[in-house]
Automatic annotation (TrEMBL), chains A, B, C, D:
GO terms for biological process: 'de novo' IMP biosynthetic process; one-carbon metabolic process. Belongs to the PurU family. It comes from the Bacteria. CDD domains: ACT_F4HF-DF. It catalyses: (6R)-10-formyltetrahydrofolate + H2O = (6S)-5,6,7,8-tetrahydrofolate + formate + H(+). Pathway: Purine metabolism; IMP biosynthesis via de novo pathway; formate from 10-formyl-5,6,7,8-tetrahydrofolate: step 1/1. One of its GO terms (molecular function) is formyltetrahydrofolate deformylase activity. It comes from Dyadobacter psychrophilus. The active site is at D222. This is Formyltetrahydrofolate deformylase.
Length: 277, 277, 277, 277
């Protein structure tokens, strides 16, 4: 039967790279459905090729590796839903959005479980028949807490971990278990506000625009590669609480958009930037 | 010396098209700077390839034509500024924007002349040392008027004709002189309003958003392929005149954006749609 | 105990109207929390005054009526959640958004029931413990179907009826039961597309922006006073189905925004326009 | 003859303030054209009242001062164009936008002169017949340079000073000459980038949105009260230079919008925030 795959390739640019890849796919009777590539000003090459046809993917990969210049990163993913686990704290807005999309098969992913350091959102998750793991951080050191979460994640082995308003700092050790596989949604403003009560800070600063940023988590929590951002206009009549409400709507929209891109294998990470093809 | 060129290609999709084109460019020692393509759901193929190197472009074109499947549209343009003529009536906002950009070499085009059916804008154009042709429509039939304009255009032979708020309907005969080479800016709303005083209509309708559309002119004046659109929010406090002011700002921004895309050979026309690579 | 109220007033403008109203509220020991007004270019006056204090509202209303010029529309609403009924067909996106907001007390309204001409969404509504009435239109004339719906609405007597993607045309007779109390969400584009498969039409037209409009329903279904509109950018890569997905996100956001305004008594209807204070 | 005026008032809220003001205007036969007010959560009151009629404004002001509670800031401005001076360095985009608007009487202000620390933009300003003062900072201490500028400003005595991409830091001493009268346009991003080459920084950071902020200048250059902000979306294909181009378009739009608000006396400064009525 015909399976669709996605070839992801990045590395230093070489003359004729597209030519070689398309030649090889062509020779393996693969039909290119969509091909996108980008070469950065610093001559770094990125290509995403969606193709389908009957073939032995392992053999295809072998040929690609042997025929293409060394130093390229090559991956071939079958086109399928990603397995994910959500981590949340007490806020429902991003979680609710993802659950509704999931319930109607619009998420391009399978939510294996939801993990939270509070049980606040258990009733909501329960409505959708998804396992909810309440792993309190109380009376636990950060390391103990993360160990407990990691043990639970071991059960599910998700391809991606989505921090849908998980309000605890996570340690480098935790991040190292999921390199480039953790996605976070961050309220961030023009200018960005760090620390507690950002909407109060934004209100005090009198900003006219608030926004949100979805990004991969590296070891600098709010500083990983940005996947998507959006903003909404505000004015002086909006209180800090109005801004928080509007901010939550922005956050859920941005997170959904970012996840759609990631789950469709459209996002490359390059240094601290993302290339979206 | 090394010249940069842009290959534009579209037609029915074939397996390995990218492969063949890149192979040929490769064989002619051309370095691909940027390559973008798109295949429509109906399997129509579009490719824009920016490349540079020393070669005989005519010979390259011959090879492309002979080696590639029949039925493809192929063009190779040198990467250079386009020669354009602007047509205006009495409104200055789009014209002023384009003149300032031109004065500081930001337009990707050379304004050869400005033609108007009124002399209202002659002083503004004069400031920038560009020929201004006042060709009144008074005491002339539409055909006579267009003939006079065409005679003037014959002097300049522009690659593109930009209707920067030219408020006269143009005839199919006129359009036929510049197939896919006339760009118009059109106020258009949500919903779109036809006919006189559109901002008054928008006000009466109580729309919360106004917008503008830049499009190619075919023989259905406000209905050609859309190149760019943008909108701005309004509320009940804005009068019809406020909306007109805001609308003009939107129009000039949308027209500038559309021209940048067209002048960089990034816009394909396909039926009544544009494909922008 | 102190109750907060909202005075809504509109009519022909008179010198000193604000003065008289504030004087009367002042004399009744009411503290004005927020006062907004607007006078249209045609000298029509609108005022929304939020106030609180201990008083007999009926007496206050009597005084307002007797002291203010004749011909003004006056209403005083207690500041409270509105009772609403939702009508849906098969699409879940707006319904899901409203249910999640309702579940977390963010809707400024109480959802008394959901009525649908299909049972598709019954499971979703069931998760939230809200009565779901499946009233099929099959084997019923339009009049019989609407009669059945009206009988059900009689049980709940909602203050507002929200058509959250209810895809049946409703008759003038039905609308007359809820004058200015029915809110609809309508996909609408730049330009607006009428009839079946609007996103397909938008795709064929090659629009660069799609949008949605929330409006009151009068007897011209997609033509009532507009409450809120929003748009999203699209490009040629988006299929009609991608546009539909993006359109649904836009629809749910616009509907939520419009409902927040209406449920907070901030929307005046004036002819075919809305004044939002 | 009938002159239109604008009353601006702010201070601690008192019961019945609107009532008293409208009563007094009413008693002086003034017709209120438009009245907007806002009371902050911390009970600080702001009101902008546009009115017209025949009266002695000084007498009216006396009555307002004597009848209204102490501690209110009261100003009455005739509704007229503001006199302004622009300060620029080498970038033309904001200047060009303002000159075109000025040339067609759309600026709500009279540009008395343009001052620059370079002569780069003299030709552009010259086209519009506006005095251009080239005051180089070379071979001058910062104090000497500012003294020279202040001497020139003394000739014009502008009501507002617009920094339309004036790229020198100005000293507290300079700012003190124009308290709340200097408006600056600042590139600022999500997150905000400080220091040299902000668009390069934004590119390196891989932001998906860039923006601009127009603000009053207090003694913390990029930190004064924000008047207007806007953003544009970008993606990985945009180079730092593309972002700079798009950023310039955003800057000129935001500055124009902010100036329109300020020149129409619609902006109150309250601490580090603006209230726009």
């Amino acid at each position: 039967m015909i399976q669709r795959h996605i070839l992801l390739m990045d590395g230093p640019d070489h003359k004729g790279l597209i030519y070689q890849v398309t030649r090889i796919l062509f020779a393996h009777n693969q039909n290119i459905i969509r091909n996108d590539e980008y070469v950065s000003p610093s001559k770094y090459f990125f290509m995403r090729t969606e193709f389908e046809g009957e073939t032995d993917i392992d053999k295809l990969m072998e040929v690609l590796k042997s025929d293409l210049p060394a130093g390229l990163n090559l991956r071939i993913n079958p086109k399928k839903k990603k397995d994910i686990v959500l981590m949340v704290t007490k806020e429902h807005h991003c979680l609710g959005e993802l659950l509704i999309r999931y319930a109607f098969d619009e998420l391009d992913a399978t939510i294996l479980a939801v993990i939270s350091n509070y049980n606040t959102l258990q009733p909501l998750v329960g409505k959708f028949g998804i396992p909810f793991h309440f792993i309190s951080h109380e009376n636990r050191s950060r390391e103990e807490h993360e160990e407990a979460i990691l043990r639970t994640l071991d059960i599910y082995r998700p391809e991606y971990l989505v921090l849908a308003k998980y309000m605890r700092v996570i340690t480098p050790n935790f991040v190292d278990h999921f390199p480039d596989k953790i996605i976070n949604i961050h309220h961030s403003f023009l200018p960005a506000f760090i620390g507690a009560n950002p909407y109060r800070q934004a209100y005090e600063r009198g900003v006219k625009i608030i926004g949100a940023t979805a990004h991969f988590v590296n070891n600098d929590l709010d500083e990983g590669p940005i996947i998507a951002q959006d903003v909404k206009s505000v004015d002086h009549r909006q209180t800090a609480s109005d801004m928080a409400t509007l901010g939550r709507d922005t956050e859920k929209g941005v997170l959904s958009k970012a996840l759609k891109l990631v789950f469709n294998d459209r996002v490359f990470i390059h240094g601290n930037r993302t290339i979206i093809l």
